[in-house]
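Contributing new complexes? Match this layout with 1,3-dihydroxyacetonephosphate.
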Amino acid sequence: MYQEPLPAEYINLSQEEIDSRTRAAKKALGSRLVILGHHYQRDEIIAHADFRGDSYKLAKDAAAVPDAEFIVFCGVHFMAESADILTGPNQKVILPNLAAGCSMADMANLFQVRSAWKQIHEVIGQSTLVPVTYINSAANLKAFVGEHGGTVCTSTNAPTAVAWALEQGDKVFFFPDQHLGRNTGAKLGYDPETEMVVWDPFKPLGGNTPESIQAAKFILWKGHCSVHKRFTIEQIEKARVDYPGIQVLVHPECELEVVNAADLNGSTEFILKAVTNSPAGSKWAIGTEINLVSRLAKEQPDKTIICLDPEICPCSTMYRIHPSFLLWTLENLVAGNLVNQIVVPEKIRADALVALQRMLTVCA
Ligand code: 13P
Ligand code: SF4
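Output block (do not edit by hand):
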């Protein structure tokens, strides 16, 4: 989505000035405002967040503040859309920078998913197919899933959501992250080699034969996260040599081999809790976005906390929520101007809500 450049008065402000004006705007808006911050946001944003969390927690937090008029979502577009779907008609969800998307979510669109759905059904005969979309997807894909008896999942609850889907039908069509899909299937005991195929939206039949689709339990969309693809087995081996006794903890958007080579894997909230609950002196090598890892290291200096990737690995789209954008958003609200509202069209919203509520019920 296109984001207008910030007005000149918001360029080149010092961080101190941004902070004090942000605090003043928050105070002026009082209980009308709730700010949600995803764990990948920079510290200067997290400092002003009323709630911080992973995608699952923030979706629940958004649904749990019915009295807030403005929900400013410091995260990426699909998160703000989910919040809009889960909140009441009088609540306004705002994304401070409309250019904050998710490159993985953009790897699947409705046209492609509908085409895949049709092609798969042409070869699976009487077998039933249940769609599961990762929350990192556009609202119209969540609506597709709601309409076709499936569910949304997050990295927190993917095994529960997928196990539920397999009780509803014979096969799971999982999009857009092949890695979360594969890791989840493997956690549930399915063989990635013989029971999973990858669907490439740019090839006929996704690049598969009818027989391989008939044999598969999981059809995994060929999508990935560019941040989590950077983590490797070599990095894990090096961390274990450099820091004997270190525990390796990665996000399940990493490749299967990386997840298998790690000690633990889980959502960003899981990562936060695992590190926070570990005793002083613990050593952690973490495979996820750098803002979260750096913050954990800063907040818990009694532990050794390093990022698996020695190069900086930020999520460039999360990073687009610059503190100046947050300030601009809030000062506009104080002045009575609603900017950057995220509105999911009504006809998409109803089915998307079915899919999100299914997740919240199944995975409660
Ligand atoms: P979490 O739900 O674990 O925060 O993951 C969201 C995400 O986009 C990770 O890349
Ligand atoms: Fe999307 Fe990856 Fe960024 Fe998460 S880290 S928001 S999956 S691009």
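Reviewers usually confirm one structural detail per submission. For this one: The chain has three domains: 8-102+317-344, 105-225, 228-307.
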